[in-house]
């Protein structure tokens, strides 16, 4: 299948690399919805750059897609190089991701960006909270770690990594990710206290107009959003498990290079 980049129903292709799966799909850029099913392969263990790139090539081949590909990584990507690897194989640090993926996917337009940045772009454009928030929007993925994207009128400030910001001497993601809740067996009340402290720290720095909460736990947001005690409204993400794929597809469509 080739890409169709003109007229209504413009299509692009996104791949979201996570700790357990490499998921991809064709995205309709007019609606932010997937065209057909997404396809997933298990993330190889160890998730080295070569092994993950092979998994990505398998997902692209499944769709017989010959056009541009956007790819997310759970890492800082700056200057075309992966700079961190908090929850993935350390072999990523220093990897020239464009050279790597070009070797596995051939010569075609590519965009590689942080997973939360991609999901935040997608939520701010296609999610329910997308209608004209007048101010800074902070999107957070609450999962194994805390991923972040800061957007202002749809423009992304990449690689903010707010999950690693220290809150009273401890990284935010070690205080309030959903994994920490699980590991400690905390109630929603207890976890909401921890998360509120993290959100208040972000408020002091960025004065956001809105937080959008993503990650699996946002599906149960009615159980914990009402318990938060920070000042800024928090709404659940609405694209959920397609946000990374959609954001990756958006990024390559606008030739985003971070
Ligand atoms: C990583 C981020 C990533 C987030 C969500 C954090 O541990 O440092 O780059 O966006 O997890 O996957």
From TrEMBL:
InterPro entries: ATPase_NBD, ROK. Keywords: Kinase, Transferase. CDD domains: ASKHA_NBD_ROK_PPGK. The keyword Kinase applies. GO terms for molecular function: kinase activity. Pfam families: ROK. NCBIfam families: PolPhglucPhase. Belongs to the ROK (NagC/XylR) family. PANTHER family: POLYPHOSPHATE GLUCOKINASE (PTHR18964:SF146), ROK (REPRESSOR, ORF, KINASE) FAMILY (PTHR18964). This is Polyphosphate glucokinase. It comes from Gordonia effusa NBRC 100432.
